[in-house]
Amino acid sequence: MSNEVFPVSPEWAARAIIDEARYKALYEASLRDPDTFWREEAQRIDWIKPFTKVKNVSFDPKNLHIKWFEDGALNVSVNCVDRHLKDRPDQVAIIWEGDDPKNDRKITYRELHAEVCRFANVLKARGVKKGDRVTIYLPMIPEAAYAMLACARIGAVHSVVFAGFSPDSIAGRVVDCDSTVIITADEGLRGGRKIPLKANTDEALKKCPGVTSVITVRHTGGDVAMQAGRDVWYHEEAAKVPADCQPEVMNAEDPLFILYTSGSTGKPKGVLHTSGGYLVYASMTHQYVFDYQDGDIYWCTADVGWVTGHSYIVYGPLANGATTLMFEGVPNYPSTSRFWEVIDKHQVNIFYTAPTALRSLMREGDGPVKKTSRKSLRLLGSVGEPINPEAWLWYHRVVGDGRCPIVDTWWQTETGGILISPLPGAIAQKPGSATLPFFGVKPVVVDTEGKVLEGETSGNLCIADSWPGQMRTVYGDHQRFIDTYFIQYPGMYFTGDGCRRDADGYYWITGRVDDVLNVSGHRLGTAEVESALVAHAKVAEAAVVGYPHDIKGQGIYAYVTLNAGEQPTEELRKELVQWVRKEISPIAAPDLIQFAPGLPKTRSGKIMRRILRKIAEDDFSNLGDTSTLADPTVVGDLVDNRQNKG
Ligand code: WTA
After folding, report:
1. What CA–CA distances, in Å, run from 270 to 463, 475, 480, 532?
2. Atom 6 of ligand 1, nearest CA residue
3. Which residues participate in the annotated binding site for ATP?
4. Could you say which of 476, 492, 511 is where a domain stops?
5. pTM attached to this predicted model
6. 183-194 per-position pLDDT tens digit
7. Once rounded to an integer, what is the mean pLDDT over residues 401-416?
8. Closest atom of ligand 1 relative to the 495 alpha carbon
9. How far, in Å, CA of 326 to CA of 314, rounded?
10. Are 504 and 440 found together in one domain?
11. Mind listing the pLDDT tens digit for each residue in 199-242?
């Protein structure tokens, strides 16, 4: 931990929308009288029918409901597009930077309006209606934003599937939300390599008999197979429809999107976000946390396949009439200066990225950064995993030339937007701490028995009351929503994260306390990786845990027991890694596989992950109580054979 404090500079205190006094006053007001606070904040968006009720929430597991602005009506795409046509039709809404630095595009709000309407009309022509689920499997191209906003315009519910996911992962998500339409592209491009998106879709659809329509965006021009009756080219359909489309009137609590995310058990769950509360919260946090002001060029490097891309590339920035940069490529192509070159090229003022990217670039030394100017930068942000103080300090000193505050934003797919973060003009930063809660957010630290801990302490992080951006349910499985988040600590939302609160009341997120891994900022369930491994014909049993990894934050350590008669060979190890890449995604590939003749289990057959975690962490000194194991000798074998010890 670093004990350094980086105070708010006088320039920042003077220019920021929220300074320290205002933060304190508004935070206090937001907890004292949430109804008044949120009634006023919700005026930032245009309502077709104003709401009269602000908040209707119960966290009681027996009567769980979460509703915000419930009798209001709006259209999210109108808020992100149409309403800016009056004041800023010719302002750039989206700057697109291709994988190849020679490719870029600028889309004004006027053009965005036409594109979104056209896309909406194509969806309608393919039979999509209000409430239908549409799967979007696209690379980082403007059409991804058009498609999302087009769904919002006609009241369809989008489910974006990250373009790095495998056919099986797509199929699982398509079937779970019963989506009949898929939007994809011929191919994606990352670091000069092509990703066969249409081919992956075709493969996935062998398992999705309900899909009637595949809309394919032509991006690379690569060859793809088209199935007559089912598949159409987007550009051909778009040429047949008008560039204007009447928006649907949506209730505040109508679903906006589903986004699948990993939990500690079972298959990924469909996190459902609704329209009014989500948009108010995404827009508000984007404005205050990034101190977004008119004319700023803002760049979030996330992928639209993750929640960060939803809230902080598309919905938050566009609701605020911002200029948002969308980057197709990777940080190290064509060179490790790429991020900084893009910042100079487009004069980016606000830059928001993930610690894993910073750690991998940091490894290259200061040279690739220092050869660029970065004078346009004013603010830096971090998201997705704890940022280690070393990376924080490098980001501050080298990337920001010691001039730019860093907002370390803690939040989750479930929370819709940022819950704990410094506001750059109001809150002094400490490297590695997400600092203080956002307006209306009441963090609580509890011990494993559920006792609320006060003052300087550490434990599990809960949130005591609702905020408008909170997820409303797990799609199709409300009981799972209750069981996952509201049973363990009754009356509170349980985040699944551990944290420490210091003497200044600052929060330091320490990572997941459940069986969720965070690999390079990507969330993965240990159960998902295990079930992929077990699906291999030679594998009898598997147990997966995380271990500290210099670049990825966490690496994936898999203990694998083979079927009788199978030999543990180096080839098989490689084969299993390839297998998981293909079954789930390259992001889920195990870093280390240890073949184990047996796994430590209790007498009732439960795998003792605590012990496996310790061994993977190379921490053999304190394996805890092993006396409850059915066969304590397996632990000695596992220690002797820890994979990279040979
Ligand atoms: C972790 C990403 C520490 C955390 C927005 C959380 C963080 C999970 C931070 C959610 C941060 C995210 N500091 N940890 N600033 N941001 N996390 O759903 O463990 O992909 O529970 O949402 O990432 O990941 P998700």
Report:
1. 21, 5, 10, 20
2. 412
3. 384-386, 408-413, 497, 512, 523
4. 511
5. 0.96
6. 999 999 999 999
7. 98
8. 21
9. 9
10. yes
11. 999 999 999 999 999 999 999 999 999 999 999 999 999 999 99
